Structure formats: C-alpha cells, structure tokens
From TrEMBL:
Domain of life: Bacteria
One family name in Pfam for this protein: ABC_tran
Lineage: Bacteria, Pseudomonadati, Pseudomonadota, Gammaproteobacteria, Oceanospirillales
Organism of this sequence: Reinekea thalattae
Record protein name field: Phosphonate C-P lyase system protein PhnL
PROSITE patterns: ABC_TRANSPORTER_1, ABC_TRANSPORTER_2
SMART domains assigned to the protein according to its UniProt record, in alphabetical order: AAA (SM00382)
Domain ABC transporter residues, every copy: 2-225
Transmembrane segments: none
Family statement drawn from the similarity comment of this UniProt entry: Belongs to the ABC transporter superfamily.
Length: 225
C-alpha cells in the first residue's frame, strides 16, 4: 500500500554556502494494508523528512514512493490532491486550519471533500469529537484557541473522520492525557483492523509498542552506511 523504493534525500542550503545535508540514502520500506510501521532512529535521522516526502510536501531526489499504485514522485498537483483526498491521511503534530471555522466543520471537511453528504460527515464528526472527549459547547468554536491536547484531538478526529486506506501519524499521542491516549491507541488499532496501512513516528515508546507491528530504524539508511 505504501512502498518506499531506494529513496535518497539531500538538502542543499542555497543561502548557506550551498551546504549539503545528506539525510537518507537508499531507503526502502513496504507497508502492507493492516500494518503499522513505526519509524525510529536518532534525532536528525530523517523520520519527519521521510513522512513529508511520502505526503508529497518534500521532493524526493532519487527513488520512488508508490501509494496505492501511484508513484507520487511523478504525480502532478491534481493527482496528489486526489491521493490526499481519498487515499492518504496525515495526523500532523500541529493543527493548521483557517481562522473562524467551527471545530465541527474542521473535522467534517475532509469527509465532505471526499464526497460524503454534509449530514453524514457531521454525524461522524460528532461521534469522533465525543469519543475524543471534546466538550460539545466547543464544537461551534474555532479550535485555534484550544489547548495543545484539544487541538491534537481535533486533528486526530479530522484525520480519522473518513477511513483512509493509508495513514501517516506524526506523534499522535504527544500532548494527550492517559484516557485520550488510550482512545487514540484504540482508534489506530481499529483502523489497522479495517485494513489501513500506517507509518508513524512515536516518541511515546509504550504507545508505539501497542500499535506498531514493526519498527524500522532510519539510521540504517544514512549516507555513512
Ligand atoms: N527543510 C529543510 N531544509 C534543510 N534541512 C532540513 C530540512 N528539513 C530537515 N532538514 C534536515 O534533515 C535532517 C533530518 O531532519 P528530520 O526532521 O527529518 O529528523 P528526525 O529524525 O525527524 O528528527 P527528530 O527526531 O529530532 O524530530 C536534519 O539534519 C535537518 O536539519
């Protein structure tokens, strides 16, 4: 479902004497439906960089990244938008939304964009916000003033509102209390049971061990190896 084939990534810092940072060399990873792979490796080994390449935010220097049969290193903007709409979700660490959009709409929006009716999307959004313990009186407010943990839960609700077949998780439990952390771990395991292929970064090792089938250490894919 998510295939990373011989991927290399070097950053060139044009405003700093053309300095080159070789982050990944010949990285390979294959994630099957229903599998969760955790990315590990020392700080700076390229975990976030690889996730951003898979989501199409960073270009790939070499190699191919295949999502559900499409090579996203060659995809145009229209194809990439369609993949993000229907196939690949991304739970980022920080919520990025437009100001003044109510929480309920923020959560339902990706599902509506993927073709669901407003009524069905709002119903699903309400179920998820309830499950993630966001009090109902906050649903009509913008999440921009919410606490860090509340914002993270809105972000998770938004990414789980529709059943993406592939999902990227960037520290999904980082700012959560125990009960919400357990809820998110259950949601990840349910998505897995429903066939989602997932790649995650978890600094919370206990959470990682409860969801990950495999751990891949990106330090093995650096230029020194
Ligand atoms: N946009 C960028 N421009 C230049 N260098 C970058 C950029 N993004 C990442 N890097 C460099 O790539 C390397 C890997 O960074 P990355 O954030 O992927 O590491 P990580 O494994 O996720 O680290 P951490 O565990 O600390 O979050 C770092 O040396 C970083 O400086």
């Amino acid at each position: 479902m998510i295939e990373v084939l011989n991927v290399s990534k070097t950053f060139t810092l044009y405003n700093q004497q053309q300095a080159r940072i070789e982050v990944l060399k010949d990285a390979n990873l294959n994630v099957m439906p229903g599998e969760c792979v955790a990315l590990a490796g020392v700080s700076g080994s390229g975990k976030s960089t690889l996730m951003r390449m898979i989501y199409g935010n960073y270009l790939t220097n070499e190699g191919r990244i295949i999502i559900d049969g499409t090579d996203i290193t060659e995809a145009n903007a229209h194809q990439m938008m369609s993949i993000r709409r229907h196939t690949l979700g991304y739970v980022s660490q920080f919520l990025r939304v437009l100001p003044r959009v109510p929480t309920l709409k923020v959560v339902a929006e990706p599902m509506i964009a993927a073709g669901a009716s407003e009524q069905a999307a709002h119903q699903r959004a309400k179920e998820l916000l309830t499950r993630l313990r966001i009090p109902e009186h906050l649903w009509s407010l913008s999440p921009l003033t919410f606490s860090g943990g509340e914002q993270q839960r809105v972000n998770i609700a938004r990414s789980f509102c529709q059943p993406y077949p592939a999902l990227l998780l960037d520290e999904p439990t980082a700012s959560l209390d125990g009960a919400n952390r357990d809820t998110v771990i259950s949601m990840i395991n349910e998505a897995k049971a429903n066939g989602a292929a997932m790649i995650g970064i978890f600094h919370d090792i206990e959470a990682r061990d409860r969801v990950a089938d495999r751990v891949v250490d990106l330090s093995n894919f650096t230029a020194e190896h």
